Amino acid sequence: MSGWRHPDLGTEIDRSKPLTAKVDWTKIHGFHGDTLASALLASGPRTIARSFKYHRPRGLYGMGAEEPNALFDITRDGTTIPNERATLTPLTDGLKARAVNASPTAERDRARWLDLLHRAIPAGFYYKTFMAGGWHLYEPRIRAMAGLGRLDPNTNPPADTPARSATCDLLVIGAGPAGLAAAKAAAEQERAVWLIEDGTSLGGALRWRGGEIDGADWTDFARATETAILNSDGRILTNTTAWGAFDHSLIAAWQRGPDHDVHWRIRPADTILATGAVERPLWPAQNDLPGVMSAEAAHHYLTLYGAVAGRRILIATGSDASYATAAAFAATGAKVTLADARDATPAAPDGVRVLSRQTLRAVHGKTETWGATLNDQFHSADAVLVSGGFTPSVHLHCQSGGKLDWNAEKDALVPRPGTSHMKVIGAANGTFGLGPALAEGATAAGGLAPDTPDGTNWRWHPARPDIDASGRIWIDLQNDVTLKDVKLAAREGFTSVEHLKRYTTLGMATDQGRTSNFPGLAAMADATRRSIPETGTTTFRPPVRPVPLSVIAGRRRGDLFNPLKRLPLEDAHRAQGAVFREYGGWLRPSAYGKDEAAAIQAEAEAARDTVAIYDASPLGKLDIIGPGAPALLDFAFYNRLSTLKPGRARYAFLLRESGIVFDDGVVLRPSENRFIVSASSSHVDAVRLLLEDPRQGRFDPSQVAIHDVTQAWTTLTVTGPRAPELLAAVGIDVDLPHMGVAETTWGDAPLRIARISFTGDRSYELSVPLRQGPTLHTRLDVALGAVDGRWIGLEAVMILRAEKGYIVIGKDTDGLTMPHDLGWGGPRDTREDEYLGKSSLFTEAAMAADRRQLVGLSTTNVVSTGAHLVPLDGPRRSLGFVTSSYQSPNLRRPIALALLEGGAAMQGAEIGVFHNGAVQRARVTKACAFDPEGERL
Amino acid sequence: MKYSAVTLAREAVRGQRGWRPAWVKAKPKDAYDAIIVGGGGHGLATAYCLAKTHGLTRVAVLEKGWIGGGNTGRNTTVIRSNYFYPESVALYDLALRLYEGLSKELNYNIMLSQRGMLIAAHTPAQMEICNRIANAMQLNGVDGRLMEAEEAAAKVPLANQGAQARYKLMGGIWQGRAGVARHDAVAWGYARAASALGVDIIEGCEVSDIRVEAGRVTGVETDLGPIRTNRLGLAAAGATPGLAAKVGVRLPIHTYALQAFVSEPIKPILNTVLLYLGTGTYLSQSDKGELVIGGGLDRVPTHGQKGNLPAQEEVLSGLLEMFPSFGQLKLLRQWGGVVDVVPDSSPILGPAGPDGLYLNCGWGTGGFKAIPAGGTLLAHMLATGAHHPISKPFDLDRFRTGRLIDEAAGSGIAH
Amino acid sequence: MQTFPCPFCGPRDETEFHFAVEADHPRPENTPSDVEWAAYLYTVDAPQGPAREIWLHIPCGEYFVMSRNTRTRDVTGSEALR
Q: Is A683 helix (H, G, I), strand (E, B) or coil?
């Protein structure tokens, strides 16, 4: 290709600001306002890319997301982004670009020999070979050859794209003539209009084609539209791609900003789609040569950037649209021939030689174009600009469920009105030409058509790939799908559009088939002697064009990814040397001290010797209030709770309807009509909603309320033989029986004391409002030294409870565990009334003897949690598994809990413990290994 | 026509003119010995097994659209048998073993790539669960093992291990035989092999009703007319409950959209299949270079093959949390499939309702990896009228007896 | 992203809701047979098209009945449980 820079033209570039960039290590020059593509075009002859499969030389073809060839790994300021389209990449000074899929450069690509194999490797050849010995013998080499750009392992783009939500009266997508007319008409009726435009500024094709509207240059009309939108509380977003249409009218849009991008979720009352159309190519032999370009794209580069595609221009077309293009090129002094497929052609523009009834049969050249065959005649040319008509861009209409109809007059699949929530206007609706587009746009928004002298619709000759033509003809440039591949797919029965696509990879490249889907469909229709509507259409899947993953992912990363819940006393714990871990979504002290393992043992020992305190604030506190509370809890819980006396607490299970243990915990009854459910810390929300279900669905909700006050209280648990002493020292009266509850005051503040134990030693849960938490912490801490006590983390608590055989739901139970598996068969045997999960406790499986039941294990060394239990004799199979396993500092031996098939009846039996291929022996014991009589409580 | 390098070379010379349709586009006959509704992997594999193993060739597969167009062509192509319960392992490892010989069996390269799969854990609690699964796999005779942090990190060198990482790698479960395959090729390969054995594969044929006389299936009504048969297999994923309802069978199946995502292709950067327990996002890199990404279900039960934005944000933020450098990449395609989810996340295999009706459904998110087994088992039932020992535990009756095979419950990991 | 109407809070994003159960399938009581109980626990209609379902609006904790089309995703109504 012999591109050059026109000395005057170029509305987008600022010639006072020259820029330099490197493409494949070669310097190119451009100006501020250029895209990488326009600078490349203006910088002269070049093979700028290689194709995916055959490594064919390729040049610039298009102007936007439809560009199939010009893909680069772009480095700016030391940061590399792979697979960027030159057409969408602003040129910046010092930018470095490397052609993807080529080495060392696109021009001198070492893999260009692959093209010689093209006869042997048609579409789908890999399904038919590479089987001998297994695919794994061939795969690594094939993988290395595939792929486009290279990921830079050292570039970690920041999580800085905010997601913003918006609503508006009318969303207009696309700011070409139709979109502008619609937006202006709506804004003038004082509707809040959002206008979003993919390009850098408003106008669409007007930017390079120009036009007169309402008696003035189109730019006046665009400015008036802008003013009208802003005056009616609307908004204009340029550089913004509406990339997805989702349910209930939601549009997702990617706005590219100078500093960072924004991800918009816009929910408009009405939507108008004016996304234009993409020019179709033509299908002569060798249509993939550098120098063959979309005529519309070439026109665009000429006007906006003064980048001229060549000096001897051949425009092959059948479309009225190409005449203005021909005129524009002729005005640059280039030699322009326009070859029209039609018999009757419009008048020839000045300086343009127009030939009629011409078919472009072949393009000639090796790595660049030097001519073409029209009908049977050779024509010299250094650029062949092609136009095979236009394909409406209907992605968003189809994504929102819209259907398409084949319209022979428009020679396109156009949106069927009423099948999506959008109105589709302008070129996206198959309406071409300035006048018709403006009229359709204004009418769609209830306005009057603007006035323009350019009132006619474009007509074109329907161009199709000729399935009988000879030579190599590309349908999908990027994925190297040729007309022969489509014919092969037809021959082998891959005739549905989806099969064609999957078998040949047609339309699956990063240009998403913008220039290939239509000719592929047309060629398949021809090859199978069906019409286009009979052959079908492809589905349009989001995104409309490739969108950075970082835009959709937004800021949800690091600390903001599943954010942890934090303890109000976190800083105080840290000051005491706490190590923190995540427990059920909470960040909690695991132990206090640098040597975590040693600290855990020491803490667990101290808790039995003297006294220990741990932060139990995450423990759920659901207030169940009202006269209906006892009946609700009786139904919701496995254990009867209406019989609990005020001032007392009871351990209870909550089941799902499936009979599976969902949660356990202590329920307090501070007064007649008030209960407090201590749900497990990770289960609070779920337990609340589980209780809400019968409250609303089964009982009178006016008689009982559920109030989650978990995060309103700080709870510190004081446990150990010297606990009463410590509490006395801080002025807390502890005259309470085991499982007793008292609501009192401490100083001026409310204090709730519950004498309940998760450690097996005498324990007091002290709950104070958050505000009093630090005071309680400090007072206890000061008094702790005198009783030789210490703060302990959750790991020590885990050991203490395991010594007692107390379970942790989800750890010592799994999704099959029922309460009678845990030794709590009582309510199942005795309760006559209804409760959650009741019937599930009596199914065949629930009554089977082989249920896995909770046991303890006595072993010589600490077994691995997650080890399985196996028979010592006979075939090896899993009888269950170890759920908790620790070295007990108090018993000075290993302890373990396990779920064991028929375990309740196996006390004293010997069993194998299987871990990673090895088996050791263990003895089955009761779950409780420490103080079985509960004398220390 | 046998596929081989030799035939490829011959056709290269002959201009590719000698290829024949991979499968015959059949028109329905009046009657068949067996009919399978659903031309996905399971249905086609069933037809193949009926013809190949059981010698039944008067068999038709009825597909309302185009074969392989449902979940077979919409999944993330992972094949594995890293399960917890012996029943599940028996089923999925049968499938994996059959997959290992499938390219040869079908003379169609399904591109099985056994690159191994890592389920990555981040907390001691998750490591304990992984240990439980790894030991269960070993006891069940499957190649699973617990992998420690260092080795796991070496498998996924770009994984986020920095100070800002929300989930650091602590290790996980490794199955070396797990991998990926080319999903379309599985459907096409089975179709071609079944067609060569005389099976009628009928595309564009939607079943509207099931005919029953005297308690036995006698045929189906379709938009191409009625077809008689006494043996009917339903392998239609999310459409199965609607069909079963025609004969009064209600199923424990909810349908949800499950999304998949594909990035633009890049040179190889990831050589394993990876599931991160912290984020719930899983991925692999295709031979073409695209990252193929999946995650959790959309939250709203649906019958529409379409994904929604919140799940996309969740899955892709999960991906970038795992691999911050992937923020350089762009999303190329996204789509949704309708998956048939059963309360215990295990499939339903077995008879239901009238005599002669058999189900192969409820695969949820995991049907692709089970295709060869699903086909073998449904074919066995259609041919013999009885369960295969491997399919027996998956009978619909388990919901009455309570003997669910709940992997998520047993292992703590939802597959 | 779908928008669902909570009868108490108005239209909200789908992420705030949780599907509970299909409506109009009462809980069998007084020792139902295993078949009746399994039907209640597990089997569903999962209609392709209009459906009546019970949903939970998580922030307010209220369960309500929503009518919607599972294929087109149109929401046709929502009402409080009582």
A: helix
